User: Fold this.
Amino acid sequence: MIYWELLLGFLKIGCFAFGGAYSAIPLLRDAVLSYGWLSDEALTDMIAVSESTPGPIIVNLATYVGSSQAGLAGAALATTAVVLPSFFVILLVTSLLRRALKNKYIQAVLRGVKPCMVGMILATGVYMTFHRCFPMSHGWPADIRTLLITAGLAAAMLLYRYFRKRKLSPILLIVLAAFLGIAIY
Assistant:
């Protein structure tokens, strides 16, 4: 039964995860919480871990969830299920690429989908930040340590951009987040 659930859950995520891993996080959250595979807090922690480890975030998450629910076979099944739709889409797209990109309707669809993906990624980031900084499950209304780390990272990004006139490297931001996490926690 768990194998069937892993297959269907991650196949659905793989089929509808257009725009990358960040836009798939709401789908993943829905599947993981509805099947009871992880708690919301554990999922948020695993998103952070998956983001900082090599490889695609959604594949790392699928592998972890599959492994935690059904061992090595579950990890292989969940990973395959989440990757399979993209694999077939890439095969199809590469065979039709020349004609499709010249089609004005395809170009219109792609231009229309792009802002939606940006909105989904932004909404996911705001949701995760808000729920980590203000967890309603604990007695205290705000997690001061998480607020300090978030404020420190935001200040670093803004100051770096102001003084250096360019964006802070994501790698440096991850390293800074790791140091802040170690220092504060």
Remarks:
- DSSP finds seven helices and no strands in the chain.
- The longest helix spans residues 57-102.
- The radius of gyration is 19 Å.
